[in-house]
Amino acid sequence: MKILFVSSYVNNSFFIKYSKKYLDQNLINCTYDYICLNDAPDINNNEKNYMKLCDMITGEDNCYEETKNQANKNQFKHIKIPQNIHNEFLPNQGGSRHIDCFNYFNSNIDTLFPNYAEYDYLCYIDSDCFLRKKFDPTVQLDNYDIIAPMIYINEYDKYPHT
After folding, report:
1. Contact 101, 126 (CB under 8 A)
2. What is the distance between the alpha carbons of residues 64 and 48, in angstroms, rounded to a whole number?
3. Contact yes or no for 102/124 (Cβ under 8 A)
4. What is the pLDDT of residues 14-38, one digit of tens each?
5. DSSP secondary structure letters along 66-103
6. Are the CB atoms for 6 and 102 separated by under 8 Å?
7. Where do runs of H (alpha helix) occur along 2-141?
8. Average pLDDT score over residue span 83-108
9. Counting CB atoms within 10 angstroms of each CB, which of 8, 63, 87, 121 has the fewest?
10. Beta carbons of 82 and 145 less than 8 angstroms apart
């Protein structure tokens, strides 16, 4: 079994090493790849840092480079998220930015990561969510096509929460 993990990062690249550590330690009977969606502005290329982002631990203001470096250091894939997908006049809400990132990734998956079809499962995971116990997807995902927290519109209509 092969799983593709996808997570969004803005100013929290220090979580990347823990994602790698706990996936390597606790994911069994499968292989995986991990994509870091880098949602920080690339200030080296003059993208506007309208949120005045800085790294949550170091205070460094170049969150884009730090996320890119940590992704590479941990052999994770790195994908830049264009900042124009966000409305800079809306409040900085992590949830809506994550939704923007995942919707952008889903809408452009054929060009951003064309070999996605080689994976058995696509797993969107928060950057601060880690496997703490052994997890065997061949057992725990058996006979499931999709597993997600669900949003219920009414008793008949529902959709997976991004």
Report:
1. no
2. 12
3. yes
4. 999 999 999 999 999 999 999 999 9
5. HHHHHHHHTT-EEEEPPGGGS-TTS---HHHHHHHHHH
6. yes
7. 16-26, 63-73, 94-107, 109-112, 137-140
8. 82
9. 87
10. no
